[in-house]
Queue: 3 jobs
Job 1
Amino acid sequence: MGATGMASAAGTAVLVYLVLSGRLCGDGREEDQLISSAVSAAAAARRRRKEEARARRARRRWPERAPAGWGEAAAVAARTVRFTWAETLGKWPLGELAFGIKYYMRQQGNLQHEYAGSDSVPLDGPEVRRQLISLHRYLRLCMYFSKKPYDVFMEFGRYDQNDVLIKKSKGRLLKPAFTIVRDRNTKSFLLFIRGAISVRERLTAATGADVPFHHAVVHEGHVSNVVLGYAHCGMVVAARWIAKQAIPCLTKAVEEFPDYEIKTIGHSMGAGIATILTYILRENEKLSSSTCIAFGPAACMTWDLAESGKDFVTTIVNRNDLVPSFGRASVAKLRTEVMASSWVHDLREHIQQTKFLGFINRSVSFIRSHLPFVSDPRSKVVDADMLLSHSSKDERKPSADTHGTVKKRSALVCWSCVAAQKQTIESSKQTQDMKNQTDADVKIEKITEAEASELVSISLGELNLQESDNEDADREEKEAALKETDEEQAIELLESLTDEQQVPSSSTSSEEPRQMYPPGRILHMVGLPAAHPNTSDQAGQEEVVTLYETPRQLYSKIRLARSMIREHYMPKYIKTLEQLIDKLADEGIDDQLDSL
């Protein structure tokens, strides 16, 4: 390890010295050979360090249990922050976040009708209404536990101190707040898990790496099947932490009240944890009848695991709620679709039509054309031209004006430009591997190694900033010779310089993200346009709520909508449930009148 570091440091020091002194294009073959050897040594050292880092990351695993002290908690929190950064701002350019999603949402339109397709089954009738009334009560209890003081929760549920089995009202990292109460009305033990309210609980939700998880199906005291898959790391750890405390308590309670049922209930992150906890509880013979009610759960497990819970997990989704389809794989698909859309063209038209934005764009373009350092890729000034990716080969070729600008820059700026362009190349290649695009889209994003080599040669040829006009001819001859001998080494160096950008960080996996799904049987409350709004009881409303049992594959794609975040909150779920209950009640009255 020491020899590798010394070789890398020596090669880098020699190269930096030669670049800063402006001698990359100096006289003599010995100097060229020295440069070539330095480039090769630096590239080899970088490759070795990259392989060693990959080996260390492969051996490092995400935590399988909740942190025992503040030291472990700080380490997990730091790794979670790095993971979150790498999956969000580390992959999404600022232009796509600020403008691309908005314009793609407008282009996509309202896709809520897709949940009411031919594969979805509409649900109605008195039995469905009774089930919705029960779900409405459980959701209100869950909201009171999450949002209100515990005394208010007990008063609303008409519980006394003897009905409280466990109370954990303070959530920590990978240790969510939960409670277990005995509900005499429904003869069941209710385990409520709070969602992501505090910062620590949000870090639990952000620990979204995929970890192995299996479910052993127990039938008559024997394991009849084992379902393998992957699940959300933070939710798996949190569920195991709750199970360690809840299983002894529930086992004792079931022995005392054998006719009572066990139900785990949660919303958002709490719903995902409740689902995984139910899988764990059902592996215990005495708790094998446990069921789960999940309101707006996160996409937290792979297909096989999600399908295996259809008999004991009920998932309720409200309208355009984003969370049940939000996962690493679905976000990657969304990014591909946003990049393939024409949001840059729409943004330019919007800027041209707005006088204020047009004035700002022209001002920024004027400043960039007169101040070379503002045009550096590291600059934080962004306008519509900078947001546009390289769309054609002609645009990528430097013009005469560009040559003049490069001559005014320092050598390090030129190398940083090439490194930044290489990073853009690799990020676009990773995006294209996730989803096959058309040939036109591929041409927009892909830059070949030959073009990168051309850019390298241009940068190498113009690094000597102090040569006189009389030496131009000699310099051009040496550029040609240097291009033949050192072009491959220079490209290798550029690749090594951008390895830290290309190789996933320690918080990310080298494998492709796995597609996650919401668990169990999915009941989706869909808002459809009213066919006859003036003749129905819902006059004045734009939508009529209908309940559907939807197929799981619909949640592998993110459907953007302006209300996709707002409709995830519990008050919106309660309001939609009440609308649906009233609608089914009116339909039942109409049916009775028709029968008479």
Job 2
Amino acid sequence: MEEEKAVKSTVLALPAAAVCDLLSIGVCPRCIFRNFGVRGDVYSSCVLSIASLSSWLKPSVNPVELPKFEENTGSMKVKDSCHSIEEKISREETCIVCLGVLQMLCVDQNQELTTCKGKINNMFEAAVAILKTLQTEGHQFDSFCLEVSIPSVVLVRDRALWLYIKKKYGSENWFQDVMVTGCLSVKEALKLSLTKSLEDLLGRNSDMNSSFRIALFYKHMEASLELDFVHGSKENNLKRRKTGESIGIHNGNLAAIDAARTTANAGESFAAIQRTLNSMSEDDFAKKYECPPNKVHEPCQITSLCYRTSIYIGGRYLKYSRNVSQTCWMIDDERMGEASVEEIIGNAILPYLRGDKYKFHAAGREDIDVRMLGSGRPFLVEVLNARVIPTNADISEMETKVNNSKDGIVKVRELKRVGNDAWNLMREGEAEKQKQYAAVVWISRTLTDEDFKRISEIKELEIEQKTPIRVLHRRSPLVRKRLIHWMKAESIKGSSQYFLLHLCTQAGTYIKEFVHGDLGRTYPNVGSLLGCVAEILQLDVTDVKMDCFD
């Protein structure tokens, strides 16, 4: 009763004649509230309907002004073989502005009516349908964020209705109050309508920063054709969204999430249309578009899904084999090396989070024949659409699983869950980091004490490196300046032409080329510094000095 009183009070505070006029031309109650700047929990009320508004307004207006309305009942998914889908939709007229979005009068991709009418709370039933999706997916979450994507044509219809209201009621005192209050968008109204029901049903709070997302995507192919006059505007070169393509979303399918993100990111088109509308005068708009907008025969199609934004697991990896690439390396459908760091770590982590897939990111890379020793190389495993948030115990098990797999050729340390900013921190630190190496070097003459002294005295040596010949097929032909911070030569017992070279360099230095010179493309190099031919036989990374998420 208290809820009904609150809604009734809100309705009676509005100009009755204008409200009845809007109802009669096909505007739904929530769109009427939006245009009068109403805010609050009234949007989620189960008593908010055309019938209730008509009943409450009867004493205030001439009966002729009231729209005719017949109460209907139904269920969330109406399945009646005796009637077509069009007949089912016609039982409740689709709003000329929101296209059924705020009425929960929408059709899913199986052409089933997803609405409840009459005595049942539409918004609650919509929340129940979302709950079924969550149960199917099996997500664990402690909060949620509601995402909404609506057809761009709603912006056009919103403006058309507003101009109709302004032209007809602009001289009324209440209109100036509405101008000050401002209208709510369909997205804002839908979130106000659904959020409370979702919170009550799920037992979780809504949080715009939550990593768990409940996404609703609406499209209306017929009405979207009305955008032609906007796209034809000379003031803006718009990127037109393809309205004739199905999103093709099926819960639990990673392609669905990618499509959903693409659709959400297509907001550039939405924003561009908004800019175009803002640039058009009211008179120019009214000449090109009907005010108020025409009625539509069908509501929007709706696709819903739930997903979690990426979860990152970070740490450092060590690689003890000279036959393991960092990522899966294929040439002509043939694998290079016995395994990859990416697969060994990623395949161990993914099952714990029950994600759809993972992406591997590292702070630089070493060649397949180079070992990664010392403290290890920082890395991130990005898990997409994880159903489970890992506990500390899970992460400890992941670390053990990696370290015991593949005869220990790859190990991890300091494994932990890190924040969304970890990727950026790693990329920023990558450009500034220093790396230490140990290389077995051969020279074309006998080593002398002077050679060892000369190498050890070099500090902050600047070199120039043209893109190495071995990577020219995939890297731009550039000249890069790099610093060799220090070097130290260590003799190898029983050898007069081999020695162990320890060095610390700037990130991005090609070590192999610094040793042999790459046919003069790297200068100076170890060979030129010693005045002889130098070749590198083995190389290890012994330290990556970088604090990104330690």
Job 3
Amino acid sequence: MIAGYMQNGQAEEALKLFCEMLLVGIEPDLYTYVSTLSSCAGLETLDHGEQVHAQIIKTGFGENLAMGNVLITLHAKHQNVVNARKIFDRMPTRDMVSWNAMIAGYTQNGHGDEVLQLIRQMQSAGMKLDFMFNQFTFASILRVCASLIIVKCGKEVHARIIKTGFEKDVFVGSALVDMYSKCGNIEDACRIFNEMPTQNLISWNAMIAGYAQNGYVEEALKSFIHMELQGMKPNQFTFTSVLKACATLTAMEHGRGIHAYIIKNGVQCDVFVGSALIDMYAKCENIEAAARIFESMPERNLVSWNAMIAGYVQNWHDEGALKIFCQMRQACVMADNFNLASILGACAGLAALGHGQQVHALIIKTGFDSDDWVGSALVDMYGKCGDMGSAREVFDETVQRDVVWWTVMIAAYAQHGHGMEALRLFEEMQSTGMKPDHITFVGVLSACSQEGLVNKGREYFHCMSQDYGIIPRVEHYACIVDLLGRAGCLDEAEKFIKEMPLECGSMVWQTLLVACRVHGNMELGKRVAENILEMEPEDPTTYGILSTIYTAAGRWEDVAKLQELMKSRGVEMEPGQSWIEVKSKVHKFVARDRSHPQTEEIYLKLEELTRQMKEAGYVPNTYFLMHEGEEKKNEWHF
């Protein structure tokens, strides 16, 4: 009866019956103890299993082979792999079940290195692995190869699978598809999948996930459709992979269709499906839909919180990210490195130094200060908040720095006008043998631009491809245009754009347009603006810059025509925002803003500061703002 309960997954009933058996004075035999311990493996805690184990030791069954095997499984399933290994090592004799149980225990608990070490131990002992392993062992080892991304080891295991005749087993085949996919060998994964005599839900899930993970997102969606046509019902793992594919494609219409299908299949309450929906809508720039999914979730895990916070940051809703992070802390959910790096990005976006410092304290408290991802995010946050001292302090405290660390620090210096310091750091980076990437060169070229180092900028631009094999991207060309534009070499900048070997888009032309405004070159500015408006006729930035060029030249009729053109095209200028953080609260403002509760005090302080600035000899430059008769008015607002 106890065995029957155990085999049908009714662990609590099996344990109750065992206790009744002891109460009525019936002495359990070996078979009873094994069945009862197997039932305890299905319970939430290890306590009952340890009590039964104590009873076993008391009765003298502790050294039995079958008992040892089930005890290994019991402890491993409750994540106590250390005790499982102690039991394994104390066993006077071991059979195939013993080794397989230990391998499975290590695999389930993410101890991949120990699995490989155990296999080497078996080989050293002269064991014939082909006879020791079954389909479940092979699947466990393949999962280890997948998690450690060791394709060579995976291929060796694959060869043994073929030799032992398990290649047709659906369980092993699914594990092979998963292993090759996670090791980036999608062709072999696809071949094995197609050669499988039968395919089950696990096989389809492995193949769809493999396509999605390797960027073959359209194939993932096609496989999902093909799977349905074969009458296979998807589960939460299927939906998670398909939604990831939709997120990568930013295919919101497909995503909505999958969302409807999820509701139809009744898995919308699954925490992983909900998290995948949040991620999909956020990456498709529908943050409102993502927020609705998040709020409607009956339960949330760390993945859900991370998806929502990252979604807000990706869509420039940094205040929303901070709000969700505070809710997460109130819910006593422990942060991980991804979570902390994301929220530091929100602090950086808002230049909210106070919030960033609080997150830094949490990072130290939780021990994530040694994490590379979190550390580089800290440098970025301090840099974007203008606290270069703290940024450099975090940078200097780290001994092992990858290219991200160097790049973030160089970019921080370049962003805040410390161009020479950025270039010195780049030279130091090169001296360590660290190879820069394309993002590093954006910071380096920006530093050259700010310092007016035209020749040095050209030199770095050419060394990208010549010394490091990095093909310049649009952002690098924009940096060179900015470099030439700041130096007043406008004609050369225009020629440089026209000779670009790739489609430049509006960003590069807008860089030149800004230079035209600075140097008052109206004719070139007009040509450049026309190019931009052909590509993006509804971009308000271009109209705004061209308007200031006309204004500076006193071309009021052209300003009026431009405003009429904007009106006819439905283009509206969004007011620029500024913000300040006071006592960990962010206050936002726009021009002529009177919505703040302390408006009167703010404007009184502004008048006081304006008076003090004038007394100190400051004269505002209203060159780009002044309309006829408006000099005095614009001077005050400027």
